[in-house]
Amino acid sequence: MGRLLIFANDPASANVTMAYLYLNKNKHSEVLAYPTSTAYEIYSQHIKQYISEKQIKFLETDTVVTGTSGIDPSYELSIIKKANNKNVQNTITIVDNTLNFNMRFTINNTIADKNYLAKEIWVFDKEFKSDVVDLSDRLVYKKNIYNTFLKMIYKNNIPKIEHKFIQKYKNNYLVILTEYIYELYSLKFGFTEYDMLENILRTIDKLKLNIPIFLKLHPKEYKNKFSILLRKYSQLNIIQDKCNIQELIYYSKVVFGINSSVFQECKLFKKDVYSIQINSNKIIKIILLDKSSIIYTKDKLEILLKDKFEKM
């Protein structure tokens, strides 16, 4: 019955570590949550009572749980190293997405040594394998605990409508989820988040469809990232804003993205969700979606938009 300490530095990490806390809190004598950066808002929405201002001092009986980051994993890796140095009872790193897996455990372009690695590395993809021995030896295959968490939270509760856009266009709007593909992979896949967004907006404009569009940036993307594209297509009915993600998805008609962790909410709420990968030279595998939900040509995108929105 030692303590549980969870750490997160971005939204996806916040989701999985928060789920771990929610499902295991009764097994521990004390539960402490330490969010940083964009993870703080998510913790505040769901587990605010566990956010701690206490100085971090690890005890040998502690269980320490972190997420991972595909851009800069230094925060999570440093936490695990400090915990390992104190010989805590257990350290767990939960990987929300196995894409870019090795980078999540890399320091200065080299796989981190064992001191930085958790005793257990949880993944939700049963088919995933790592070619790095130190990582492979730590892999633990688990059922997606964030999905379990969402089902428990929203089983008998639907999100409350608070955003004016959602009130006005309830069940009739398109959500576009952006993410930092270019920053992570450059042109590895043959397209970027900028290409995805322009392909969608250009097609809507070409078809002259009157679609209410909510552009939802990844929390770590800067506010003006797509300002040039938004000015170019200012004639469209589109807004870019912050919003509770469950509220936004629950009342949408269709959701477009690339490989967003928010696809989990989409599937839970039984929404039509598609990964837009036009002109890709290497299809990004999406565990939650079947092949028919991956749009890789402009013709398929046109047909889809007509089918979903032409009668509005």
What would you note in describing this structure?
The protein is of the alpha/beta class and 312 residues long. The chain folds into two domains: 4-153, Rossmann fold; 162-309, Rossmann fold. It contains twelve helices and 14 strands. The strands form three sheets. A six-stranded parallel beta sheet has the order 2-1-3-4-7-8, sandwiched between helices. Strand 3, helix 3 and strand 4 form a beta-alpha-beta unit. Helix 1 (11-24) runs parallel beside helix 2, helix 1 packs across helix 5 (145-154) and helix 8 packs across helix 12 (298-309). The longest helix is centred in the middle third of the chain and has 15 residues, at 193-207. The protein is globular, with a radius of gyration of 20 Å.
Gist of the model:
This protein is of the alpha/beta class and 312 residues long.
Quick tags:
312 residues, alpha/beta, Rossmann fold, six-stranded parallel sheet, 12 helices, 14 strands, 33% helix, globular
Topology readout:
Blueprint: E1 4-8, H1 11-24, E2 31-35, H2 39-46, E3 63-66, H3 74-85, E4 90-94, E5 106-107, E6 110-111, E7 120-123, H4 133-136, E8 139-141, H5 145-154, H6 164-169, E9 174-177, H7 181-185, H8 193-207, E10 213-216, H9 227-232, E11 238-240, H10 245-250, E12 254-257, H11 263-268, E13 272-276, E14 294-295, H12 298-309
Parallel strand pairs: 1-2, 1-3, 3-4, 4-7, 7-8, 9-10, 9-12, 10-11, 12-13, 13-14
Antiparallel strand pairs: 5-6
Helix pairs in contact: 1-2, 1-5, 8-12
